[in-house]
Design a protein that fits this description.
Layout (H helix, E strand, L loop, with lengths): L2 E5 L2 E4 L4 E8 L7 E7 L6 E6 L6 E3 L7 E6 L4 E6 L8 E8 L4 E4 L3 E6 L1
Parallel strand pairs: 2-11
Antiparallel strand pairs: 1-3, 3-8, 4-5, 4-9, 5-6, 7-8, 9-10, 9-11
């Protein structure tokens, strides 16, 4: 079992930056792929990006490439989502998730990010 807790969300103006954190507990964190997802108002949850167990490989959806960066600190059991140049369309609840196989098995409770224009 992996327990995930996101933090760092808030209300910012367009163009600002935020860093989300996702703290993991309950299992060996370093072996898990970690992903970030988001769900905007009235929208389905969408995949934002992911990072492999070592942190050496990341993947992002096109809408956030060049603006968002995912990193992890396995010593602290934490994964981060650095978000720069935020846009109103980035407004969403952001979730982190963990997978060991092909599907994300564990999810955090989410943190709200609101970007005003």
């Amino acid at each position: 079992q992996v327990h995930l807790v996101e933090s760092g969300g808030g209300l910012v103006q367009a163009g600002a930056s935020l860093r989300l954190s996702c703290a993991a507990s309950g299992h060996t964190f370093s072996g898990w792929y970690m992903g970030w997802f988001r769900q905007g108002p009235g929208k389905e949850r969408e995949f934002v990006g992911s990072i492999n167990w070592s942190g050496g490989s990341t993947y992002y959806v096109d809408s956030v490439k060049g603006r968002f960066t995912i990193s992890r600190d396995n010593a602290k059991n934490t994964v981060y989502l650095q978000m720069n140049s935020l846009k109103p369309e980035d407004t969403a609840v952001y979730y982190c998730a963990a997978r060991y196989g092909s599907s994300y098995d564990f999810w955090g409770q989410g943190t709200q990010v609101t970007v005003s224009s």
